[in-house]
Design goal:
heterodimer, A: about 230 residues, about 60% helix, B: mainly alpha, 2 domains, 3 helices
Chain lengths: ~230, ~110
């Protein structure tokens, strides 16, 4: 459903959730506009965002500038270290599920890969991951991972009479394919978890601040107290 | 990022990254079967393609240059020595808590 409905949303990345919500709000409830407090807060945020464009990385930020840092990426030390760590982490993540029928498996491997995406995002800024971290790519892959797990289980039901039963010939011990369908399960779980966690994390990161004031429900509380 | 580099530079980056990733795979798996090596090569190439846009990559052979090799060896020895010294220092602080800690922690009183 998510993928089918995605085409109607006015955004192509995880950044922009708030603007997508505002458009929906305007069409669903056109009579309700922002009050004075909300308008002032939004105006102040807009002015803040319209200041000089932020530098590409923290190396270009003048030393001694008052916080917060506005650079898109971090310093060269962090960027180089992240690139070294990213390769090691990515290979270790795949190792966790490839040899993962012993301690390890698809879930931790997926979390490691999502961590790599987050690490690169932190070090290099959004532009480093925007070609990969976008709904149109990640959401179909995530769904394919989940569908593959179900399909694998159903093949077990069809071939062996039991859901998720092993239907892959077992290789000798101490080899990658020794896990049978468990190995396939780990692989698809890896795909599902890596994309799922990346979607969840970047969807949260992409959320704008909601300046709408809280509903004043003191009248309701008083009415409840009297009854 | 891809458009800023030439094809030769791009190929160099992918090859070097793949080689680094393959070395990590070999160290992690330490298994000399054909199956393991094939999986390792595929994983390494995928890593190379994925991380190539991030910037230039040093070839693994650079480690073998005498000056860099000596610097890395010195770093390794220094790390080992500092790890041992830090552990001994921590043990001493735990066993003898009366020693001045000088942790650098700033304690600010609050009204709460």
């Amino acid at each position: 459903m998510l993928v089918l409905s995605r085409g109607r949303e006015p955004r192509s990345e995880y950044v922009g959730e708030a603007s997508a919500g505002r458009t929906e709000q305007a069409s669903a409830d056109p009579g309700r506009g922002a009050d004075a407090e909300e308008s002032a807060a939004r105006e102040a945020e807009k002015e803040e965002g319209e200041e000089a464009s932020p530098p590409d990385d923290a190396d270009e930020d003048p030393i001694g500038e008052p916080a917060p840092e506005r650079a898109l990426g971090m310093t060269v030390v962090v960027r180089v270290t992240s690139r070294v760590a990213a390769v090691i982490l990515a290979v270790a993540g795949v190792y966790l599920f490839a040899w993962g029928y012993t301690p390890g498996g698809g879930f931790p491997a997926g979390v490691v890969l999502a961590g790599v995406a987050l690490l690169l995002y932190t070090a290099f800024g959004h532009r480093a991951v925007r070609r990969v971290v976008r709904p149109a790519l990640l959401e179909p892959i995530e769904m394919a991972g989940a569908a593959a797990i179900i399909a694998m289980g159903l093949i077990g039901l069809w071939r062996r009479g039991s859901f998720l039963d092993n239907w892959v010939p077992l290789a000798p011990q101490q080899t990658i394919r020794a896990g049978g369908t468990l190995q396939l399960f780990s692989t698809f779980e890896f795909v599902e978890v890596a994309t799922g966690i990346t979607i969840a994390v970047f969807a949260l990161l992409g959320m704008g601040h909601d300046w709408t004031p809280d509903e004043d429900d003191s009248d309701t509380d008083e009415a409840e107290a009297q009854s | 990022m891809r458009d800023e580099v030439t094809t030769a530079e791009w190929t160099r980056r992918v090859a070097r990254l793949s080689l680094w990733a393959y070395l990590v795979w070999v160290v992690l798996t330490w298994t000399a079967t054909v199956e393991d090596q094939v999986v390792g090569i595929i994983v390494a190439i995928m890593c190379g393609l994925a991380f190539a846009p991030l910037g230039p990559v040093v070839a693994p052979s650079a480690v073998l240059r005498p000056r860099r090799f000596a610097a890395l060896a010195a770093l390794f020895v220094s790390c080992l020595a500092r790890i041992v010294r830090a552990n001994l220092s921590l043990s001493r602080r735990i066993l003898l808590p009366s020693r001045p800690l000088r942790s650098g922690m700033v304690i600010t009183p609050t009204e709460a």
